[in-house]
Amino acid sequence: MKHYLSVNDIESLPQWVDEAIKLKKDPYQFEDLGKHKTICLLFFNNSLRTRLSTQKAAMYLGMEVMVMNFGNEGWALEYGDGTVMDQGTSEHIKEAAQVVSQYCDIVAIRAFAGLQDKAKDESEEVINGFAKYASIPVVNMESSVGHPLQALADAITLEENKLDKKPKVVLSWAPHPKALPHAVANSFVEMMKLQDAEFVITHPEGYELNPAITEGCTIEHDQDKALEDADFVYVKNWSNYTYYGQVLNKDTNWTMTEKKLGKAKFMHCLPVRRNMVVEDAVLDGNQSLVVEQSKNRIFSAQIVLKKILENLK
Ligand code: CP
Q: Which residues of the chain are under the pLDDT cut of 50?
């Protein structure tokens, strides 16, 4: 594997999850692998977990880490071919990606969807631009349409918490006051397609995710019915996909409650808005896995960086 851009770059999900769980038990076991190697983390958007967990993962592997808040501090980048750059952009992705490639051995990038222009977001101009013009491996720390490090952490969390039987996992939409991207839900769906599980997606009618991603999945618009006998409930808001980026529904009947959750374990990628997406009692109760999920972000990043470093040697 050269780049880690999507869940589809995982060569074997069960094997990677198994390796990540072994890394978690002894995280310094490959501390020489990244010696004299540098990772550069470029953030076009805010972060808590992704920033710190990816740094920690790199440190466990003995790497040097450079972090830049590109969105606030870098030059505004141009992505178009042949553009006359007489407007707001100052530097082309062609030069920026090549320059960054000389300062580090791996570059990891966070660049969210703008949610204004579906075609532009789906072209993934930032992460694909870096993958095209950089001469080093590129890692996706959440792009317009995917958050594969989160999905891998979620797979680790499911594995660590699953019972003996094939689990029922429900992805449930929840209300949110702001327009949020589809990336986390998309990658979770892609990851669940690789799992031996009963998987159900529930959301209000009209809130379908990209059908190319959910193809083959069970979709149930009755949330109560979807949640029946669930073992894991993964809650996430996303803005409307058809009326792209709009917030057409804030129905708090979809908020996850202790009663709806029943005996299931609760999952969310964080950050989460309390008593909007999920009520306090769920997050504060012992069925919540959200803090475990955030810990597993270290080991999802570590297994990805380990695979890339092994390929660099
Ligand atoms: N889950 C996640 O990606 O968290 P951050 O946005 O804080 O990095």
A: none
